[in-house]
Design goal:
This protein has 88 residues and is mainly α. It has one domain. It contains six helices and no strands. The longest helix has 18 residues. The chain is globular, with a radius of gyration of 12 Å.
């Protein structure tokens, strides 16, 4: 496994995301932090992403919200998109 650059920064961002769900912030910032975490292939960071998705599954999969999130992540965060499309 490659050494993860800025693991602590990514981990800090993911911990912040776990505190609260805001759809605007999720679409504007959080998806990119989560994508960076998935790109590392680090099991700890991937588990944190899974924890976020499970914790906020209800909010993420609301009608209208879910489709918007999928639309944006499909092009901008493909690894996260792969996890999200199987969330519902």
């Amino acid at each position: 496994m490659a050494k993860v650059k800025n693991k602590e920064d990514i981990k800090y961002a993911l911990k912040y995301i776990l505190l609260d769900f805001d759809v605007d912030e999720f679409l504007g910032v959080d998806i990119y932090d989560m994508e960076r975490a998935l790109e590392t292939k680090d099991p700890e960071l991937i588990n944190m992403v899974d924890e976020i998705l499970n914790k906020f599954k209800k909010e993420i999969t609301e009608p209208g919200v879910y489709e918007s999130i999928l639309f944006i992540t499909k092009e901008n965060a493909p690894l996260l998109y792969g996890k999200l499309k199987n969330l519902k």
